[in-house]
Amino acid sequence: MFTGIVEELGEVVALEQGADSARLTLHGPLVTSDAVHGASIAVNGVCLTVVEHADGAFTVDVMAETLNRSSLGALRRGDRVNLERAMAAGGRFGGHVVQGHVDGTATILERVPGDRWEVVRFSLPADLARYVVEKGSITVDGVSLTVASVDDDSFTVSLIPTTLGLTTLGHKAVGDPVNLEVDVLAKYVERLLTTTSISSTAKDRA
Question: Could you give the CA distance from residue 13 to residue 167 in angstroms, rounded to a whole number?
Fold first, then answer.
């Protein structure tokens, strides 16, 4: 589990493409400082497993499901990525509950700069729209953010100087893809309400 507080901007140093998979090697001295084989590190919001690590870099395998649901398949050598280690027991919750299970991708539609901050608008996939609410939490490329506004097919967030300077969101352009993970609590509530409704209907028919 993660909290969406990016610890480090890493870099893709090697990429091996398979028929329906990929192997990435990423430079990240901070997140590998205590890494062990099998550790979880979020890469642009995707929870991946460390299979090798040495000299401040680590290697992960990315399967077809992850490539299909995320933007990791578009990464190239030299690209910067957001990195976060799994939350330690007893750690602080700086963001919100983030699983590292990407729900889909979006595109940056607009960037409106302020004096020291910036409002960024993203597209919103139709199948995820019901989970996104104003002032709710959403994870964009592994960054825990608060939804500033939302409509049927887009949402906005306001990025503070720290987020602009220390994550990939400060450097991406209009048209670039990002990974989205909606608030898992919303999905559980939906499932519970749906199951309860189905159960009540079945009892009424009995």
Answer: 18
Pairing of strands 118-123, 8-17: unpaired
Domain edges within the chain: 8-85, 104-189
* Reported CATH class of domain 8-85: mainly beta
The pairing of strands 118-123 and 137-140 is unpaired
Return the CATH class of domain 104-189: mainly beta
Alpha-carbon distance of 12 to 75, in angstroms, equals 8
What are residue 106's DSSP bridge partners?
A: 178
Across the strands, what pairs with 149?
A: 156
Same CATH fold assignment for domains 8-85 and 104-189: yes
- 95 neighbors 4 (Cβ within 8 angstroms): yes
pLDDT digit string (tens) for the chain, length 206 residues: 899 999 999 999 999 988 889 999 999 999 999 999 999 999 999 999 999 999 999 999 999 999 999 999 999 999 999 999 998 877 777 889 999 999 999 999 999 999 989 999 999 999 999 999 999 999 999 999 999 999 999 999 999 999 999 999 999 999 999 999 999 888 888 888 887 655 555 555 55
